[in-house]
Specification:
The protein has six helices and ten strands. It is of the alpha/beta class.
């Protein structure tokens, strides 16, 4: 795992994170035009990945693909606060020498983008050809355009929004409540995420909010599940939700 240290980062709420660092993936010729990819909520820095473990945009980015890594250099940073290597709640708080956990400060999209800009400068990159992303990544792309409009030629975003709606916030509140009321939560001091079944419920709630009702209906159409482990439900959509919750 490659990481770049960006020093002390001042957040939008006035708090600071000392010795912040971002994990990243960097692919393509070092002298080629650079494309910065911003990942979605459940994504990571592994956009391209490897043949053994393909990245989440492996079908789009790589040698000879739509974003050709023979012609472009592609950089993806794991967002600040994530669990895939960048500074986040699992990192050691230098003031206490213990993991931050619930003491980790609140992070905004703007904080994520400021961190990425600092990381690019630390890698010797002052300007990129394009910034691209979807969902949470698309929100970062929009913020890039607001904060650093002269630092790229193009902005490309998909399935995104400039702000989160009250409807989405309401779904999030259900997920948060499910997590915090789980006995295994222990105020954030749990040992393994598998101990917190509320996370599974929160994930299922998230999956509902990611897709529209017509999409669910066209995909599942009240089909009966072949492998039914729940005597109270035999629908494919139910099996799908349980699978997503566990994964």
């Amino acid at each position: 795992m490659e990481k770049v240290e960006i020093g002390t980062l001042l957040l939008e709420n006035g708090e600071t994170i000392p010795h912040a660092e971002l994990a990243y993936e960097r692919r393509g010729p070092m002298d080629a035009p650079i494309i910065l990819v911003c990942h979605a909520l459940t994504g990571s820095q592994y956009t391209v990945g490897t043949s053994e473990e393909p990245g989440w945009w492996d079908g789009l980015i790589g040698p000879g693909k739509y974003i050709d890594t023979n012609q472009y250099q592609v950089i993806t940073f794991n967002v600040l606060g994530s669990c895939y290597g960048s500074t986040g709640p699992q990192s050691i708080n230098p003031e206490t020498s213990r993991p931050y956990r619930m003491d980790f400060p609140f992070i905004t999209i703007r904080d994520m983008v400021h961190a990425q800009k600092r990381a690019l400068l630390a890698l010797g990159v002052n300007r990129v050809k394009a910034v691209i992303g979807g969902s949470l990544g698309g929100m970062q792309v929009l913020e890039w355009g607001l904060l650093y409009p002269n630092d790229m030629d193009q902005l490309l975003l998909f399935a995104s929004t400039p702000y989160y709606s009250d409807y989405g916030i309401a779904f999030n509140e259900i997920g948060i409540t499910a997590i915090e009321n789980d006995p295994g939560w222990k105020n954030g001091y749990y040992q393994s995420s598998e101990d917190v079944k509320g996370l599974e419920i929160a994930r299922m709630v998230g999956m509902v909010s990611y897709r529209s009702a017509p999409l669910f209906e066209s995909r599942f159409n009240r089909k009966i599940a072949e492998d039914n482990h729940n005597k109270f439900s035999s629908y494919e959509v139910s099996s799908y939700m349980r699978y997503q919750g566990k994964n």
